[in-house]
Amino acid sequence: MAVAARGLSKSFGHLKAVDGIDLDVPEGEIFAILGPNGAGKTTLMRMLATLIVPDGGTATILGRDLAQDPAGVRSQIALTGQFASLDEDLTGRENLILLARLWGFSRAGSKARAAELLDAFDLADAATRQVKDYSGGMRRRLDIAASLIVTPGVLFLDEPTTGLDPTARQKVWRLIRQLAESGVTILLTTQYLEEADQLARRIAVIDHGRKIAEGTSRELKAEVGAGFLSVALADPSRLDAAAALLADSLGHEVNRNAEDTHLSVMVDTPAAANAALSALIEAGFEVTDFEMGAPSLEEVFFALTGRPADDTEGDAP
Amino acid sequence: MTKSFTRVERPTPPGPLSNALTFGWRAVLKFKHVPEQLFDLVMTPIMFTLLFTFVFGGALAGSTGNYLQYLLPGILVQTVLFNAVYSGMGLSTDLSKGLFDRFRSLPIWSLAPFAGLIVGDFLRHLIAGGIILGIGLALGYRADSGLIGVVGAFLVLLAVGFGFGWCFIVLGLLVRTPTTVMTLGFTVLFPLVFASNVMVDPATMPGWLEAFVRANPVTWIVTAVRGLMDGTVTAGAVGLALLAPAVLALILMPLSLRLYRRS
Q1: Partners of residue A149 in chain B, C-beta under 8 Å
Q2: A264 in a structural domain
């Protein structure tokens, strides 16, 4: 495991920002922590990056213990925080050289590494401009580049595309995928369901400091159920009979589409859909086509928390 | 973007000195990109020097020339003390912008960012002090002790900047808004600087105030710097001047480190 956390907790005053979270992030994967503002995502990430000492729980990063060996952890990780952690007065190039020097590159080596990264992140043209003159997307790219001076074992990205326009966001997404392909484990937080769905192999949903669900995007959707099963029959004249059977099996109202070719019905679990399909076939209906329409992650979040994902309830640090 | 990412391994970890020098380099770059900051640093002391010398000088010391001779070493001390506040503001700005999050997640000597701040401070003190001294010389100030005395005075000034600098590093770590650091800093510094012998000889002050002035570490520092530049210094005066910075550094350095690691 790249990251293994057990029962991580952190309170600020009487606010339990993170309340006993377990996390297992396999090596080489993109893992997303999904939750609304104030859910505890940033606090969780800052604990894993050795910036905040947890009140309780343990964690290892690539086998190094967070509490016993914070220096060892730091040698394996890089963090791109929510707010660009760059020196705005310096140029993009100088920011990268500064960090390369801190990592131990020689003068010439630092310049070469900075040039490589600026090139790879499409920032070569802006290399000698002060960061305060960069656009939001450029800043974010430089910030990620600054985390890659030395290829980290685990890269933490805290809300990597918050505040970016759609084009800049696509560019950052592409970068993140390329990084994962090169073998870097990426743990990212996001409040965008689409982002988690697009990028991450596994997603942990957190709310009020607790993990309320975890799995692949598909698993999460399945766990919630409430997808739609759509069925087409070889003999449309038997649709009424099939509808009666499905309604009986699944306990939901069955709709016929306008062209009288398909039936669709809400299902609670994939297993229930399976059973209903089997029942149809056993009863001698010839099913020519069926489709399980998964719910969107928005529906998932709503089902898990009982409120929409963008409903913010105060802001935790 | 078609480039792939090849793995880059970490070079041999650098020593603490290398880290500190890198942060010092950052401070130098700041001078290159934000030369305006020098304006903030020297405008107040230049105004003080000119106003006090020409408005009060004749009345206080018989002639503006005599008064400048008395005032200039004091203004140098004032400059260094006020500069230290700006350094705390800089730290507070860095902290509020998340830059230190990155530094703190790097496997480097944890005191290195502070060492960088101190290198930057030293440069600021030397540049600002040099400019004030230059203006003083142009107005007719003469250091009776010559170059050696001036070098000695600047070394004391650097020690003072170092010691008092930790006050504002602690403040910068505690208070995350740069303007609050400035307000708090000057609230403490103004009475210390004015109720001292920077501007006038305390002999004419009421007894209670004179007692305060004589016990004020700023007075000890000014006495030593003035003595070094006039050639009338004693070893005891220099020792007394270094006492406050030494005590401050001894107490506040470990405290800063704890605050930094905890925050």
Answers
A1: 8
A2: yes
**Min Cα separation B156/chain A (Å):** 31
* Torsion, Cα of B68, B73, B75, B78 (10° steps): -160
CA nearest to A172 within chain B: B1
CB-nearest partner of B29 from A50, A94, A113: A94
Whole-angstrom CA distances from A117 to A147, A294, B23 are 10, 40, 21
Last residue of a domain, one of A193, A221, A249: A221
| CA gap A84, B23 in Å, rounded | 19
Q: Which of A94, A103, A106 sits opposite B10 (nearest CB)?
A: A103
- Residue A286 belongs to some domain of the structure: yes
- Is residue B4 included in any domain, yes or no? no
> Could you report the per-residue pLDDT of A249-296, keeping only the tens digit for each?
888 777 777 677 888 777 777 788 888 889 988 988 888 888 877 666
Domain that holds residue A206: 3-221
CB–CB of A41/A158 below 8 Å?
A: yes
The answer to whether residue B22 neighbours chain A at the CB level (below 8 Å) is: yes
Residue A189 lies in a domain: yes
Q: Which of residues 60-89 of B touch A (CB under 8 A)?
A: none
Q: Is residue A300 part of a domain?
A: no
φ and ψ at B171, to 5 degrees?
Answer: -60, -45
Find, in chain A, the residue whose alpha carbon is nearest to that of B19: A102
Q: How many CB pairs under 8 A join A and B?
A: 113
- Written as six digits, the tokens of B45 are 């002391």
Q: Which residue has the tokens 């401050």?
A: B248
Considering its fold, how many domains does chain A have in total? 2
Which CATH number goes with the domain that contains A164?
3.40.50.300
- Both A146 and A285 in one domain: the answer is no
Based on the fold, state whether residues A198 and A131 are members of the same structural domain: yes
Residues of B in contact with A177 (CB under 8 A): none
Is ipTM over 0.90?
no
Diameter of chain A measured on Cα atoms: 80
Q: Which residue of B has its CA nearest to A117?
A: B5
Q: What is the pLDDT of residues A45-90, one digit of tens each?
A: 999 998 889 999 999 999 999 999 988 999 899 988 877 788 999 9
Asked whether residue A177 falls in the same domain as residue A236, the answer is no
